[in-house]
Amino acid sequence: MAIRTNDPTQLFAAAAGGDRGALARLLSLVERGGNDAREVARLASPHTGRGYVVGITGAPGAGKSTLTSAVIADLRARGARVGVLAIDPSSPYTGGAILGDRVRMQDHAHDEKVYIRSMATRGHLGGLSLATSEAIRLLDATGHDWVIVETVGVGQVEVEIAGKADSTVVVVNPGWGDAVQANKAGLLEIADVFAINKADRDGVDATRRDLQAMLELTEFAEDEWQPTILTTIATTGQGVIELVNAVLAHRTSAETSGELTRRRELRRREELREIVERRLELRARELCQGAQWDALEAQVMSGARDPWSAADEMLRGISA
Ligand SMILES: Nc1nc2c(ncn2[C@@H]2O[C@H](COP(=O)(O)OP(=O)(O)O)[C@@H](O)[C@H]2O)c(=O)[nH]1
Ligand SMILES: [Mg+2]
Fold first, then answer.
1. Does the pLDDT of residue 282 top 90, yes or no?
2. Least distant ligand from the CA of 234
3. Is 124 in the pocket of ligand 1 (CB under 6 A)?
4. Are 90 and 183 in the same domain?
5. Among the four residues 46, 136, 225, 303, which has the most C-beta atoms within 10 Å?
6. What is the CATH number of the domain that holds 205?
7. pTM here?
């Protein structure tokens, strides 16, 4: 029976028991931000750490959604429960890209053990980045063995989001320059596995050479993971088993070396810092208005007062 409440505690209990409707509502609370989102974070936190987070990133049209769909099929064949977040900040409101993602993943629409969500982040306190962290935490805490996060790897925020994963797959295409573009976007640094997708097209060898040449410029420590480069044809599923195996190999390596623990600790620390910064930012915006502000602003504008001491006076109120 569908649950008809917006109480986070009840919703969380239902979602943990496999109720997808309850999970959908919790994710909506997360997207909206505010007190309910905080409550969801509080409820989910103690139950996290079991799910494994895989980021799939790359340029628009590289085949990320098609590849994600094929990866879901493989993980399902291995018996796993899978949650997917499809994030495209370049078109948060039009829904165009999101609709495309939906279509490409609709093979799994009726699978009870697959949950796919397109993220919209209107109004969330910390924007896309914090909302994504929350949503990952929620999917992890509600029993998803794998959480796949599809992001467009263009732009600093997007690359940051891609970096929230335990393993990151960077999708490039054959042909001259694609690997170079990925490098410029900062994707080389976060890649654990490269998938040269659309390997049914010309130029696979050139792209592979480009990637290898760029990786050769990177210094790797002796026990450090060196990114795997492999080829896929997402539309037929070719190479997808190998891709999942490469992610599993990276997972094993990161678990053994302690890198996974280190990455997760770093992520939590970054998130904490981000929350503090966002809240201070909001508080600052609140401070820069009202009667006291107007008076000080007028004094500074006329030159009667220097801006530093005026700022000091305003900031005295910040702890209140
Ligand atoms: N020829 C070919 N086309 C592909 C392959 N993978 C994806 N596509 C096509 O590329 C287009 C973009 O794919 P999509 O998964 O939406 O890319 P995204 O924007 O990275 O998520 C679609 O028309 C797919 O059918 C592939 O391996 N080979
Ligand atoms: Mg897509």
1. no
2. 1
3. no
4. yes
5. 136
6. 3.40.50.300
7. 0.89
Instruction: State whether 259 and 282 are in the same domain.
Output: no
pLDDT band, residue 175 (cuts 50/70/90):
confident
Ligand 1 atom 28: residue of nearest CA = 198
25 lies in some domain: no
Give the residue among 141, 147, 125, 102 at the shortest CA–CA distance from 15. Answer: 141
User: Could you give the CA distance from residue 158 to residue 162 in angstroms, rounded to a whole number?
Assistant: 6
* Residues of the domain holding 81: 48-269
Same domain, 192 and 217: yes
CB neighbour list of residue 266: distance below 8 Å, 6 or more residues apart? none
**Is the Cβ atom of 60 under 6 angstroms away from ligand 1?**
yes
- The model's pLDDT over 24-34, given as tens digits with 9 standing for 90+, comes to 999 999 888 88
Question: Which of 54, 53, 70 shows the shortest CA–CA distance to 199?
Answer: 70
User: Is the sign of the CA dihedral 82, 88, 89, 94 positive or negative?
Assistant: negative
Residue 89, pLDDT > 60, answer no
Task: Give domain status of residue 150, yes or no.
Answer: yes
